[in-house]
Task: inverse folding
């Protein structure tokens, strides 16, 4: 059945691609050059003559009208030749070059940008999202050319209620907000973290069909504790301002230059355009009430102007991730993607590993699962998985907890831990439960003793699942041990796919947060690589919530999203070790997840309706009708006729 549905979705995609149906008009309040400089409306050379006349564009463009299809082909040709010309260059150079060419299109013509993104999502997601977005954030100040989204800083206190009206769109459906304090596994990147909300919202548009004119990336700049950014290299190394021809001159200085600390910085800047001046506030992060008052003010401002908006909190350091979720989830329509989105994706994967062993789902509670990383993501996964295990067995959560083992930077977390973090405390082991292991036992000690079915990393530490750990997984009690190296970006993954199959054996299930190629195991066998990334859920959570008109995002809605993803794959795929759909079908899975979320909101009587569709109509929709309704409401990039209105 799924195959049929997917077939239908792909033929729908094909037929919509360059369809000749005339799309509805789009009202613009500007004319002439202002339109050409607005990426929401710009069609570059694609404006037909009638439109050029209507909008005062005659003479501002070369005379030949180029069709959307030709523009698309032209862009793809430039992209492919860039790929060819950068062959053999380093990962950083190639991926930043690819990001730049896409970003230039994004800045110029959003319709064309989103069309190439949707049609080539497998190739482009790793550039606009993880892993390249991590590199982009690290270099954001240097790459910055024009602003995207909004920046609210500690200096704006008291002004946000009016500032929010500076955003040009009348309606906003989806906001992704970060304070830059924990960007992927890269730590505190301050204002440079804005790349993450931009990348996440690109996925909202590509996967869930949010209208790009109604999404808003936001950076809340409350300072940074990143010493490198605070030191502002422009002041520290004034000579770096010199033009790049100084580089060879410095090289002539021989060994002194080789050992000089400025060499590394200069080479970074020279090769990657690293920023000379960080663009954020040059102050340590606000803490305590001062910090919360800034976030409070922002949330009040947003929901005053757009009462129906949804806010996704993204990449906040753990203490604020949990605190803000508790503070706002019953007051505003918001969720935390790292805690809640990740938990659902991981749970779907964990249930998939039970199916991959040919066991019934009720055996989930018999799986021993070691979670490495006790941060916002790891603790979210634990708490959601324990709730699911308790639901499956009908037992209470205390019994369900027994199968889970938590490791952080100080080793196995037990009740004997001094200064035990209150957030991790519910998952700390009793000494009687751990088979002679001690508080702080190392990862290898835990794996050797417990022989887990699943090893799941959300530590942000690259390579921590080393050869010794992976080899120890060969002794797992599972017939198909699972290794989830979920940390991002690629260099922070707990292990590579190739190492996992090489050391833990061919018969494992493997998933990573950032993409890896499938592994050739020889003899015609393939080691499948899954991408266990919250991108499979957050777009559907947002879309289902929006279309339901719910004012809050409940555990029930999130659970429905996770269950939908968990049941999406066929047994045949699961047996091969394929736990998640291909990213090529992300619009389809997102429609299913969105419908599941919407139906959960209806069941909880939270759905207030959206646009012309009221709560009663939503309630009477069948499951299939809901999926159809969600799919129909996905925005799709085509050039609409522009109509000028004063
Ligand atoms: N695949 C996905 O969809 C997602 C992946 N992530 C990734 O998960 C990672 C962690 O994110 P958060 O939990 O928010 O970060 P966090 O900073 O809140 O937590 C990191 C945790 O890892 C632990 N840790 C550090 N070094 C360790 C070591 N050597 N051994 C064991 N544990 C160690 C820390 O004690 C801490 O508990 C990041 O790399 C992030 O990119 C996060 C969300 C979604
Ligand atoms: C994927 C994601 O949200 C993260 O790595 O933080
Ligand atoms: Mg995140």
Result:
């Amino acid at each position: 059945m799924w195959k049929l549905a997917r077939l239908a979705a792909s033929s729908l995609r094909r037929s919509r691609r360059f369809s000749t149906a005339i799309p509805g008009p789009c009202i613009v309040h500007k004319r002439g050059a202002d339109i050409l400089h607005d990426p929401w409306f710009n069609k570059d050379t694609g404006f037909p003559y009638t439109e050029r006349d209507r909008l005062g564009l005659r003479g501002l463009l070369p005379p030949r009208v180029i069709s959307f299809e030709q523009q698309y082909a032209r862009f793809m040709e430039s992209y492919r030749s860039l790929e060819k010309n950068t062959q053999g260059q380093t990962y950083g150079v190639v991926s930043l070059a690819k990001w730049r060419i896409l970003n230039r299109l994004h800045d110029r013509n959003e319709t064309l940008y989103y069309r190439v993104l949707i049609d080539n999502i497998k190739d482009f997601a790793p550039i606009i999202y993880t892993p390249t977005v991590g590199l982009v954030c690290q270099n954001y100040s240097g790459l910055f050319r024009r602003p995207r989204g909004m920046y609210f800083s500690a200096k704006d206190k008291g002004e946000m209620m009016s500032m929010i009206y500076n955003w040009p769109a009348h309606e906003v459906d989806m906001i992704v907000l970060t304070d830059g304090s924990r960007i992927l596994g890269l730590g505190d990147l301050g204002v440079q973290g804005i790349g993450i909300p931009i990348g996440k919202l690109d996925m909202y548009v590509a996967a869930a069909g949010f209208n790009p004119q109604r999404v808003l990336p936001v950076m809340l700049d409350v300072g940074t504790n990143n010493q490198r950014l605070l030191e502002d290299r422009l002041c520290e190394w004034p000579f770096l301002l010199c033009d790049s021809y100084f580089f060879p001159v410095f090289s002539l200085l021989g060994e002194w230059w080789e050992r000089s600390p400025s060499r590394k910085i200069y080479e970074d800047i020279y090769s990657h355009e690293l920023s000379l001046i960080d663009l954020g506030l040059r102050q340590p992060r606000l803490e305590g009430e001062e910090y919360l008052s800034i976030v409070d003010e922002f949330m009040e401002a947003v929901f005053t102007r757009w009462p129906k908006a949804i806010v996704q909190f993204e990449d906040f350091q753990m203490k604020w991730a949990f605190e803000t979720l508790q503070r706002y989830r019953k007051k505003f329509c918001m969720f935390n993607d790292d805690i809640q989105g990740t938990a659902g994706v991981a749970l779907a994967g964990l249930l998939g590993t039970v199916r991959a062993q040919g066991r019934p789902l009720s055996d989930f509670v018999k799986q021993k699962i070691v979670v490495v990383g006790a941060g916002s993501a790891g603790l979210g996964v634990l708490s959601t998985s324990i709730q699911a295990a308790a639901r499956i067995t009908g037992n209470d959560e205390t019994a369900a907890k027994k199968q889970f083992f938590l490791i952080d930077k100080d080793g196995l977390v037990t009740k004997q831990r001094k200064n035990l973090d209150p957030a991790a405390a519910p998952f700390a082991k009793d000494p009687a439960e751990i088979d002679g292991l001690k508080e702080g036992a190392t990862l290898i000690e835990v794996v050797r003793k417990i022989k887990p079915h699943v090893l799941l990393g959300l530590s942000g530490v690259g390579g921590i699942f080393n050869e010794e750990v992976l080899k120890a997984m060969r002794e797992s009690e599972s017939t198909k041990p699972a290794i989830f190296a979920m940390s991002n970006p690629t260099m922070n993954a707990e292990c590579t796919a190739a190492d996992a199959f090489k050391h833990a054996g061919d018969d494992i299930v493997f998933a990573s947060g950032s993409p890896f190629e499938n592994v050739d195991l020889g003899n015609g066998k393939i080691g499948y690589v899954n991408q266990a990334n919250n991108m499979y859920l957050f777009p559907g959570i947002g879309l289902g919530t929006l279309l339901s008109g719910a004012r809050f995002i409940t555990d029930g809605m999130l659970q429905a999203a996770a269950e939908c993803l968990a049941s999406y794959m066929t047994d045949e795929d699961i047996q091969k070790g394929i736990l998640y759909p291909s990213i090529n079908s992300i619009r389809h899975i997102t429609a299913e997840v969105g419908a599941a979320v919407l139906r959960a909101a209806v069941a909880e009587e939270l759905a207030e309706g959206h646009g012309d569709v009221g709560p009663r109509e939503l309630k009477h929709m069948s499951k299939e009708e809901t999926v159809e309704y969600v799919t129909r409401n996905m925005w799709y990039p085509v050039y609409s006729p522009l109509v000028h209105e004063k």
